[in-house]
Each structure stands twice: as structure tokens, then as C-alpha cells.
Specification:
Blueprint: H1 7-16, E1 20-25, E2 30-33, H2 35-41, H3 45-48, H4 63-76, E3 78-86, E4 92-103, E5 109-118, H5 120-134, H6 144-161, E6 164-172, H7 175-182, H8 184-201, E7 207-212, E8 215-223, H9 226-241, E9 244-246, E10 249-251, E11 255-262, H10 269-285, E12 291-293, H11 298-317, E13 321-330, E14 336-347, E15 351-353, H12 359-362, H13 367-388, E16 394-399, H14 401-404, H15 409-417, E17 428-433, H16 434-439, H17 441-454, E18 457-463, H18 470-475, E19 480-483, H19 485-489, H20 495-510, E20 514-517, H21 523-532, E21 536-537, E22 546-547, H22 548-557, H23 562-568, H24 577-597, H25 606-610, H26 616-629, H27 638-657, H28 661-691
Length: about 700
């Protein structure tokens, strides 16, 4: 038999429980409150005993709300829900309230017990997170994701009311120069002013969003003709061009505008933004500080797309599609960790066609789903063959947004993998674009969770390009983040890209994700990535995509980059990284001379050509290098060779200008030998630097 609590213990529990408790009698008079009640409402027990609970009424609910509440209490004996109440100080707050009727032995109600929890701060935090996912932090304008959502709704409205819809892409001219000259803090303040001006300019039916950097999108709806668009763009240009005063100084800006019109440009929200973006870049090419209208050529484009879709459908049936594989390696250990399956089209007339020439045209068509399922099946077939030959590699395949957002994606995937019981599912990795996951985060998260239960891994491709928020990264349980190759490409020359990659690697570590870099082409890129904490990579510097039949031979013959092996087990100081970049600069300088001989470039700076102090390598050698490495004997062996390189390069250019190409090519052989000598000297210097650490 269960022993009931004593009145003393019950009183302590009711008094000290963290939820607020209020008890009323049948006259609706308060007869008991606990400490938590007083803490939340601000009323002491003495102030409320005998009072009606309506002293907490916030006036935010109408009579119907309370009628429904009492109906529930009288009929079911309980009610619960969210309610706005008011504290003693007048502050309105949100609480979760549960009320129960307490009956006596005869079944008559004697008291009502209300238990409530203050959820005001929790709701505020949720609202802040929701807003951060939809609005730009700096300008408080809708971000890219919210802009696309708004634009898609306006497209639907435009279809119904048969009115024009204009998408205007705005980009500030030479804003990077302003940032570099005056600093990012001023740049941010200018962006805030521009955002405020644009918000004041647009109508209530319009919207302005910030897509990133100094790019803004303006959605103009319910338009009757193009004249209204021209009037608005003229006002935008004038508004932006008006000087901006910050800290007593005036700054002048201009803008380039790209415009596309729906339904003449009959596309979805994402594509309309792309078209407006293309038009904006055309405006920049035409001289900036102007606008350009996207040329739709609707009929011709639609016909071309229909023909392509038909040809691709036939290609799928006729087995004209095939997969190439690009290896992925651990640069630090030299181990081959997997390969990415990349689709190609062996066209009967046009030869081998890359994915960029046909996949974008089917991205929003159901055919992309058929192609995606074919890719998975083909990759698993190849995996099965490699396993039979003793090769176990993880193979990643790309999944289109339309495919993963299908309701039956998991069941379709299971049908395919059930045909390959011999393939361990941990060898299969699915890659989705970061932007694709943004379309339906909840759905994608559920799909990834189900796949992970089966052993299948997931990677977010082109990470850093999809305008994702931290909450999105938290909610998408992908195993791998792939750094987009556009950031890796300029990592040696652009500090912003270096900082961005460093940030991505830090995020990956914080969220316990593996990170891999795409587009590695140079040894120095790999060394720097390892130094930053990214050991995994793929790119032309490792191997180009190859037919499946070439993979076994490549795997057996693969030799890791000796430079990567050199730095793999060393503590390479980031302050010594310019030494590696200097090697890259030297190679690039000689390459420009070779291109000049072949007529592939005619833009050589005479000052840099003649003066060995003025090239990028010279700047490093006589400034940073001299300060840091002059105590190392080998350092001074580099200078005389570098001087000869410049003298010989100057001679070669003079011969080319005189039309003596054959003699220039003879001299080029000597130039290449000098180049190799400098690289050897730099390698020795690098080893000595490492040995001294």
C-alpha cells in the first residue's frame, strides 16, 4: 500500500517547486500561491490571497479565449495551453499553463489548481534563432533564403493577377576598393546606410534583401509595364549615388543593376536571381553605374532545353552515360581514402561531354531523379567489382536537390542497395549541395539520419557558398564538409579566402565534422591546408577524374607529393608560409615568360620584368625573406640565380618582340634550368627552416 505524503511534506513540495502554482476556490478567489508564483508574477502571497486571478490579465486574449477555457474545465476537468499574462510591474510575458479541477468525494468541484511555467525567454531565444536564419545580421534585411521564399510567393501571385514582376540585382561598384582603402568597419556602415535607403525607397508590396557582400536583391511586384521598372531603377541609382556622410566625411558610391522580368523570364525564384545576377555583371562589363535587362530569348531557350531533355532521356536508355572517378587522399599520411563519382555523357556525335553542359538544364526536371538513381546503381556496381579485386574505397555520388527532396527517396535508395548485398554501405557516401539542403532542412536532416542508420555517410558539397546559418549546420547531421574549390583556388594569394577556409575548418572541428578540400592543384595549397587542419583533399594536383578501368592502376602506382610528406610530421609555423608561396610566385613568373613566347599573353609589366626587386618573389626575398632567413647560409645562394632569371627573361621578351621566336625558345630552355635551380635552393632552405624549429 502506497503511503501518502504528510501535509508538512506536501506543503514544502508545493512551496519549493520551480513551477508557479496558484489554487482558487469555486468563487474564483486565490487561496494559495507558492514561491515560484511570486517570483514570476512579482506579487507576494499577501497581495493576491482572496483576489481574482484576473489581476494577471494581459488583455491580449478576447472573451472567446476564456469561454473556451472554462468550457474545457467544466466538461473535461482540465485545460492547458500557452497564455499571455501580466506581471505586477506591467510587463507582459508568455507562460505555459495547466489548470485542473479538484473534486471532492461527491464529485463536486472544490478547487482549481493552476500550474504554469514562464516560457518568455525561451520564446524570445527561439524567435532570435528563427530571425537569424531568415535575416541578415548586419542590415536586418531578408537574407538569400528568405528572399528566395518571398520571390517564389510573388511569382505565384504574378501568375494569378497577370502583372509583371521585376527582380533587380544591385551590386556596388568597386566596393572592394572602398573596403581595402578605408577598412571593413566603414564598409559595413556604408552597407547599412544603403540598406536603409533602399527600404525607404520601395513600396509596401516590394522587398529588398541582402544576398551577401555588397549584393542586394530588390523584388518589384504588381507592375503594369516596363516604364515603372525604369522609373524605380533610376531612383535607385540616384539614391545610391547621393553622398553618404560618416564621421563627418562624405563618400560617393555608384551601383550596377541587373534586371529580369517575370513572366517574360518564366523561371523559378532561384533562376530569376541568377538571371538578374548575370544581367548585373553585364552592366559592370559595359562600364558600371548603369542597368542591364536580362535577354530571355524565351522560345529559343525553351526549345533548346526540350531537345536536350529528349536527348538525355535517350542517352540514359542507350547507356551513353558513364562515370569517371576522381581520387581523394589524406595528404598527411599519403593514404587513398576514396573517390568521387562524376558523370559524363559519351555523345554519339559530340564526343565526351562534361556535366556542366547538361546537368543544369535538367536540375528542375524529373529526369534528374532518374539520372541520380542510375549514378547510385552504377557506382555500387563499380564498388562491387573493385571489392572483388581487393580494392576497398569509399565512393561518393552527388545527389540533386530534386532527388533528395522526394518523399520516397529512402525507399527508392533501399531498392537499389538491396541489389548489392556484397557492398558494405559504409563505402557509399552521398553528396548534396549546401544550397540544396537549405530548401527543406527538416526533410534533409531526416533523410541523412535514416541513411546513417544504414551505414551510409553524407557530405555537404561546395560548403561555404550556400549562405547557411550556424543553426542550419547544427541541424544537418552530415559527416563531411567539402570546402568549395573556388576558395581553395586563391588561397595562396587572397587573405580573405585563407581566412574563410580557416573559419570553415574551425566550424568543422567545433561541430565534429570531417573536412575535405576540393580543387587542390598546387603543392603549396596542400601544405597550407594541412597546416590549417585539413588533411583530406582532391583535385587536379592529385589526379584528374578518370575512367573506372584506370583506377586500379592509378591506386597501385600512386606516390604522394614529396613536399606533403616532408611537412606531414613537422610543426610548420604559419609565419614561415610565405617561404612556400615564394616558390609558387617564382614558378608563375617563369610561366608567364613561356606563355609570352607562345603568344598566349601580351601583358608583361616592364618594371617587374627588368627589376628583380619588383616581382612578387623579389619582394619576398628582399623584405620578409631577408629579415627572417638571412642567418641561414643557403639563403644568399638564391640571389645571383634570381638576377640571372630576370636578365634572361628580359632577353627572351626582346627576342619575341623582334620576331625571333626560335631564338627565344632556345633561351627558354636555359630559363627553365635556372628556374629548377631556384626551386632546389628553396627546397634546401625549407628543410633547414624545419630542422631549426
Amino acid at each position: 500500500m502506497t503511503k501518502s505524503l504528510s501535509p508538512e511534506i506536501a506543503s514544502i513540495v508545493l512551496s519549493d517547486i520551480r513551477d508557479g502554482i496558484m489554487v482558487t476556490n469555486t468563487k474564483n478567489e486565490i487561496v494559495f500561491v507558492n514561491k515560484a508564483f511570486s517570483k514570476v508574477t512579482g506579487y507576494s502571497e499577501k497581495e493576491v490571497i482572496g483576489c481574482n486571478p484576473n489581476i494577471l490579465n494581459s488583455a491580449r486574449h478576447d472573451d472567446g479565449f476564456f469561454i473556451d477555457m472554462w468550457n474545457s474545465l467544466n466538461q473535461a476537468g482540465h485545460w492547458k495551453g500557452e497564455i499571455w499574462d501580466k506581471r505586477k510591474n506591467g510587463e507582459v510575458y508568455l507562460e505555459f499553463l495547466s489548470i485542473s479541477a479538484i473534486k471532492n468525494a461527491e464529485g463536486n468541484t472544490e478547487h482549481f489548481v493552476a500550474v504554469f511555467t514562464d516560457i518568455n525567454e525561451k520564446r524570445k531565444a527561439e524567435q532570435q534563432l528563427d530571425r537569424a536564419a531568415l535575416y541578415d545580421v548586419l542590415t536586418d534585411l531578408p537574407n538569400r533564403n528568405q528572399t528566395i521564399h518571398y520571390l517564389q510567393n510573388k511569382i505565384n501571385t504574378s501568375r494569378r493577377n497577370h502583372k509583371l514582376l521585376a527582380v533587380v540585382m544591385l551590386d556596388l561598384d568597386d566596393f572592394k576598393l572602398t573596403n581595402d582603402k578605408f577598412g571593413h568597419d566603414l564598409g559595413d556602415r556604408l552597407l547599412v546606410v544603403i540598406a536603409q535607403r533602399l527600404k525607404r525607397l520601395i513600396r509596401s508590396t516590394d522587398m529588398v534583401g541582402r544576398l551577401g557582400g555588397d549584393e542586394f536583391a530588390i523584388i518589384l511586384s504588381d507592375l503594369n509595364n516596363f516604364d515603372e521598372v525604369e522609373q524605380m531603377t533610376n531612383r535607385i541609382n540616384s539614391l545610391v549615388a547621393s553622398s553618404i556622410k560618416v564621421d563627418g566625411k562624405k563618400y560617393k558610391l555608384t551601383t550596377s543593376l541587373g534586371i529580369t522580368l517575370f513572366p517574360f523570364d518564366d523561371a523559378d525564384a532561384e533562376m530569376l536571381l541568377r538571371h538578374a545576377d548575370q544581367a548585373m555583371y553585364k552592366a559592370k562589363e559595359n562600364g558600371k553605374n548603369q542597368s542591364h535587362l536580362f535577354d530571355v530569348e524565351k522560345d529559343q531557350q525553351a526549345q533548346t532545353r526540350r531537345e536536350l531533355l529528349q536527348q538525355l532521356s535517350i542517352a540514359l536508355k542507350e547507356d551513353e552515360l558513364l562515370l569517371y572517378y576522381q581520387p581523394k587522399v589524406n595528404m598527411r599520411t599519403g593514404k587513398i581514402i576514396g573517390a568521387e563519382a562524376l558523370i559524363r555523357w559519351q555523345h554519339p556525335e559530340d564526343g565526351l561531354i562534361g556535366p556542366g553542359q547538361f546537368l543544369p538544364h535538367v536540375e528542375y526536371h524529373d529526369l534528374i531523379i532518374e539520372i541520380g538513381e542510375w549514378v547510385i546503381r552504377k557506382a555500387l556496381t563499380q564498388l562491387s567489382y573493385w571489392i572483388s579485386k581487393g580494392l576497398k574505397l569509399t565512393v561518393s555520388v552527388n545527389i540533386a536537390a530534386r532527388q533528395i527532396l522526394k518523399r520516397d527517396f529512402i525507399s527508392s535508395l533501399k531498392e537499389i542497395i538491396n541489389d548489392f548485398p556484397e557492398v558494405p554501405l559504409e563505402l557509399l557516401e552521398l553528396e548534396i549541395l549546401e544550397s540544396a539542403a537549405l530548401e527543406n532542412t527538416d526533410h534533409v536532416a531526416k533523410v541523412i539520419a535514416q541513411c546513417r542508420k544504414m551505414g551510409i555517410h553524407f557530405a555537404l558539397d561546395d560548403f561555404g557558398t550556400g549562405y547557411a546559418s550556424l543553426s542550419y549546420l547544427r541541424d544537418i547531421p552530415a559527416d563531411v564538409l567539402k570546402i568549395d574549390q573556388s576558395f581553395v583556388f586563391n588561397i595562396l594569394e587572397k587573405r580573405k579566402d585563407l581566412a574563410l577556409i580557416e573559419g570553415i575548418i574551425g566550424l568543422a572541428a567545433a561541430f565534429q565534422r570531417t573536412v575535405i578540400a576540393e580543387g587542390i592543384e598546387k603543392t603549396e595549397q596542400g601544405v597550407l591546408l594541412m597546416r590549417l587542419g585539413c588533411d583530406l583533399g582532391q583535385g587536379f594536383g592529385i589526379a584528374k577524374p578518370m575512367p573506372a578501368e584506370n583506377m586500379l592502376l592509378w591506386v597501385n602506382n600512386y606516390q604522394p607529393d614529396p613536399e606533403w610528406s616532408l611537412w606531414a610530421d613537422t610543426s610548420w609555423e604559419i609565419s614561415d608560409f610565405p617561404l612556400l608561396v615564394a616558390q609558387h610566385d617564382h614558378i608563375k613568373w617563369v610561366k608567364n615568360i613561356m606563355m609570352y613566347i607562345e603568344g598566349k599573353t601580351n601583358s608583361l609589366n616592364p618594371a617587374i620584368l627588368i627589376d628583380h626587386h619588383e616581382c612578387r618573389f623579389g619582394h619576398w626575398y628582399y623584405e620578409y625573406g631577408m629579415q627572417r632567413y638571412k642567418h641561414i647560409e643557403n639563403f644568399f645562394d638564391i640571389e645571383p640565380i634570381h638576377i640571372l632569371v630576370h636578365q634572361l627573361g628580359h632577353e627572351i621578351v626582346k627576342l619575341c618582340d623582334a620576331g625571333e621566336i626560335a631564338q627565344a625558345r632556345e633561351k627558354a630552355t636555359e630559363l627553365l634550368q635556372l628556374k629548377d635551380q631556384i626551386l632546389e635552393k628553396l627546397a634546401v632552405l625549407q628543410r633547414k627552416v624545419v630542422a631549426s624549429q
